[in-house]
Specification:
Strand order of the largest sheet: 1-2
Structural class: mainly alpha
Low-confidence stretches: 84-90
CATH superfamily: Aspartate Aminotransferase, domain 1
Oligomer: single chain
Order of helices and strands: HHHEEH
CATH architecture: Alpha-Beta Complex
């Protein structure tokens, strides 16, 4: 879905690109298993423009909502004991 909008993203670091294992960094931070498996990594550089960031900010929330609708984990994600939905967080 992100690719269809021209947004390049990953579900993990470049060094674990072939692995389905959850991020050990997010797990060490105490992020719940279901949230770690739903994480998205975007890499930015000094060459990215404000317009590119605005484009991502515009297109990412509806994509996240759609993915949560079809996810077996549901639309809510618990992070550090708090329940938050995509509409509340984005």
């Amino acid at each position: 879905m992100l690719n269809e909008k021209g947004i390049c993203a990953s579900s993990g670091s470049a060094c674990t690109s072939g692995s389905l294992e959850p991020s050990h960094v997010l797990r060490a931070m105490g992020v719940p298993f279901t949230a770690v498996h739903g994480s998205v990594r975007l890499s930015l550089s000094r060459y990215n423009t404000a317009d590119e960031i605005d484009y991502i900010i515009e297109h990412l929330p509806p994509i996240i909502r759609r993915l949560r609708e079809i996810s077996p984990y549901g639309r809510e994600t618990k992070v550090k004991g708090q329940t938050s939905t995509v509409s509340a967080r984005l």
